[in-house]
Predict the structure of Sedoheptulose-1,7-bisphosphatase, chloroplastic.
Amino acid sequence: MEASITCYSRGTFLPNASSQSSTALASPPSNVRSFTPRSLKSNSFFGESLRTVSKSSLKVSRTKNSSLVTKCEIGDSLEEFLTKATTDKGLIRVMTCMGEAIRTIAFKVRTASCGGTACINTFGDEQLAVDMLADKLLFEALTYSHFCKYACSEEVPELQDMGGPVEGGFSVAFDPLDGSSIVDTNFTVGTIFGVWPGDKLTGVTGRDQVAAAMGIYGPRTTYVIALKDIPGTHEFLLLDEGKWQHVKDTTEIGEGKMFSPGNLRATFDNPAYAKLIDYYVKEKYTLRYTGGMVPDVNQIIVKEKGVFTNVISPTTKAKLRLLFEVAPLGFLVEKAGGYSSDGKQSVLDKVINVLDERTEVAYGSKNEIIRFEETLYGSSRLKAGEPVGAAV
């Protein structure tokens, strides 16, 4: 399946105008309603994901020697938000280009064939046509950004030279379409990526990221980002006219009885995990599990509560990849005020030794991660007096 994107002077990627349907993404019919910042603030259609405040409480100094304070506002476009949030033009360019690729993927997910192919990646995973399409679009976006030195994906797990500089440039790792096996059933799927400074994606940790993000392709398309030097995790909504609009800040993950238990087959020979699942059931937690990591982790950020687990056992080895999935999502959750764990430490403190490194993981509120660590490993680093790890 062929797909391409065109880069304009402002870093805007659009589906190639080879059909009326693809052009419609950028130019909606005149009778389609557009949402302005004012109408967004007064509209309840989008439910909880809209934090209806006129201005965010986030304040970030542009430089150490400047008294200039930037205010990031609900209703800002992606470009406006990034310009206020950072002076790093290279990072702005990378995040903008990836956002435009995600916009194009959202359109393609809705229209592309999702039949299985004979293609197998080097990890042995069967790929779907839409996987490869998303992979291609993201690599193109990083090439066009001109600030990406190296990139690699879960489907192409080898460093690809994108032509960008080492000094002032970035390296990006991504999962182009997490949950691709549930595309054909029309479940929500997503894109995950992490951004590291320079030219290294091994010998680094998740805490070294300067940014991370996920695109969520569901009833709405959203782009959820976090930047190292600005508090919180930030949700952008794709509007009818193809623009991203800032609709929510998350700075705190509170307590709440909602759980998403991945890899339940591990309960067969991991008694500690079985005990944890029994606790959730007996305490009448609400089960919210889709089988897709992106929507399950995103709901913790949107709902500002809950826990996601994916645990291993003697017969079920770790499946989730630290570089492409676990570290970027850990960055988003911890910037949102939550916690992550591999059972003993934050996933952001795990050194990425090889591109294919895998791990078990839990994301959630502080008390949920304490419970996870204590139940599976007997103690928790998050208890009073024990080290928590450096702030993101």
Notes: Confidence is low (pLDDT under 50) at residues 1-57, 60-69.
